[in-house]
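#lab-general

N.A. 3:47 PM
ok so I finally got the sequence cleaned up, no stray characters, all 342 residues accounted for. can someone with queue access submit it? mine expired

B.Y. 3:52 PM
send it over

N.A. 3:53 PM
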Amino acid sequence: MKITTALICWTAALAALSSAQAADAIVVAEPETVEYVRICDAHGSGYFYIPGTETCLKINGYIRFQANAGPNAVTANASTSGTSDWDVFTRGQLQVTAKSDTEYGALTGVLVFQTNADNAFGQATKLDSAYIDIAGLRAGLFYSWWDDDLSGDTDDIKSKVTLHNSIRYQYEFNNFYTGVSVDELEDGYSAGEAPNDVGIAFAVGGKVGALSYQITGGYDTDNEDGAIRVMGNVAMGPGTLGLAGIYSSAPNSYYQTAEWIAAVQYAITATDKIKITPGLQYYGHYGIIGGDFNDDNDGWKVGVTIDYELVENLYVKATVNRLEQDQGSDVTTGFFRLQRAF
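B.Y. 4:20 PM
back already:
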């Protein structure tokens, strides 16, 4: 009897203690799920999903150190001349690309920021590109087809200004594309009033076997003149042969260097890391006199460019060019560049 009573009392005590502990129990909250960055391979390498969204983001750019040489060598922005025979600058460029899938295809947004430092105090940061792209339609600040050129640095076949606020449509099918663009030419060429006009440009290009080609045209409505350019590259032997030609009806925002030009280069693949590109260009009616091309002046330029991949994503480029003309001084120019891409 005493044993039975003791067991009952002990059981009751344990039950009471258990109830007391249950009442005071601490409930530990489960940790929130951590969403790690996911790789997005739907739009190519380097993209990742922005956490919590279905938008893919890519960040890339480069750091460039460059030394220019020549009479009144160009400064950091590469569009104006200095007052000495050499100039050194450093450039940093950062590009952010966002892509997301829609019923019309990929919706793309691109932002490019660039800072040029001519010295510790002479720094200039600019928005180098900012545009929206969907289903072949592009609108914003971006480089035109006239920014394209051959792979060497002897040819002079670009517009002086190739970055415009524009809207364009480009149709692509397999290895063929064609498009039309409406460009604001506010910073273009003007023989009289300050330019704030409109340009219409077009391009047709693609690849056929070993040949890649592009035909580009542009009409400057303010100057009522235009230019057309034909450019092509074809694999041949140990390298690639590049050819280009331009006709410009008169100086205009699309081309204002000469009335016509012919350029040729041959990019030799010396090794898997070294490319050597000699080039030659001829200018017909070179320069501007009285708002028109100089009919009494022709010129030619010869040069060579060496590209070397030191290690992966680290590139060295050096070029030297000699320009001679019927009128005016003969000029030798060149540059050395070291660039790290990421």
